[in-house]
Amino acid sequence: MPTLMKKDILDMTSLSVEEISLILDTAERMKEISERPVKKVPTLRGKTVVLFFYEPSTRTRTSFDIAAKRLSADSISLSGSASSVVKGETLLDTARNLEAMKPDIIVLRHSSSGAPYILAKSLRASVINAGDGMHAHPTQSLLDLLTVREHKGTLEGLRVAIIGDIMHSRVARSNCVGFTKMGASVTVCAPPTLIPKGMASSYGVSVTHHMPEAVANADVIMMLRIQKERQTGFFFPTEREYSRLYGLNRDVLEYAKSDVLVMHPGPINRGLEISPDVADGPHSIILDQVTSGVAVRMAILYLVTGGA
Asked: Is the pTM of this model over 0.90?
């Protein structure tokens, strides 16, 4: 049986197809634990997981915390605003002080792309990237892959449309790598101002600026929110115009396959990138993604500590 020969989980690019499959298969088994009356196993008893989040988070932080606790690990949460960083201490010095307390895993979310890589090179503890700037969000991509595989039975040959603020989205970048690596074809769609140059050649995806073309015969549609907190300029005239041209509603959904899956990494801006009736409709698997997030993070915590 393959094993995860990595100390750290930093991006989707560094994971092989076999390693991704191992994580997804392990996550499927972990889901059973969450269905038990007592949702806890002693697998990681005695291990310590530090959740170090420099950015706000609901789903990722909570799911990592729940994942650690369900495996009986000790979980400690730390935010940038509550750490010595506000006193001028560097990220690396803070992390080295944390490591002196002998944690086994550090889960890091940071606004700067590349921050988890600095820690991974310098620390003995395993580092898991919970999102770094606009660069990568591997655990989100893995939970998205798991959710789609559970509904479709396979990832091979699926048509995936990713629509929204591609420019500022680490989720989009990780999913372009993850889905294409697992045999799906990906189309990204946004206004020209919200798609990075070289996207098609860098990620092996198709690029379009027209919603009907993007969702035509799609098996999966993933909507992304407009990330105003990362934008430094004006990328479209008005939100009303953006919603009219790039929002997912029932009319646009008609271009996709009849059994299309609608996804969103959250948080949702209802009425902007997705209409409420679609977000809550029969095609939506948005809450399934949240459920898969706990299982995937349980699998990763288990595997980086030597499980197989």
From this structure: yes
